[in-house]
Amino acid sequence: METVPFLLALAGLAGGTYLMRLLGVRLGARARAGGESTEASGGRLWMDRAVVVLVLAVAVTGGFFEGQEVADPGRVLGVSAGMVAGVLRVPMLLCVLIGMAVCAGVRATGFGW
Q1: What is the pTM of this model?
Q2: Is 99:82 a contact under the CB 8 Å cutoff?
């Protein structure tokens, strides 16, 4: 991977993560100052969705592509299995282990596009 695109992607991810944290703190402070109830407000729902989009973007670009080409089937199926496990609310460690096991199984069987 070339240096400049890598640094741009890194800066975008770091900036997005920082912005999400800053907005979370600001929204929390505003909710406490305004006396809002503990129910999810519009800002809180937006933040939850934005975090999901950020994590999904990282998973898709890192898990499904190798440079400018689609990754091997083991990686694609392993990342997909880990993401499905995450959607089903499996603990994070198990999501990673499931993804690794699926990837290893696909690569061991020699399955290919």
Answers
A1: 0.56
A2: yes
Cβ burial of 13 (10 Å; 0-12, 13-18, 19+) is middle
> Alpha-carbon Rg of the chain, whole angstroms?
18
Q: Which residue has the tokens 């690569």?
A: 107
Question: What confidence tens digit (pLDDT) does each residue in 20-76 have?
Answer: 788 877 777 776 666 655 555 676 677 777 777 777 787 778 888 887 888 889 999
Do strands 69-70 and 65-66 pair parallel, antiparallel, or not at all (unpaired)? antiparallel
Residue whose tokens read 């999901």: 52
Question: Which of 54, 36, 35, 56 has the alpha carbon at shortest distance from 44?
Answer: 36
Question: Three-state SS across 54-82?
Answer: HHHHHHHHHHHEECCEECCHHHHHHHHHH
**Tokens representing 108?**
């061991």
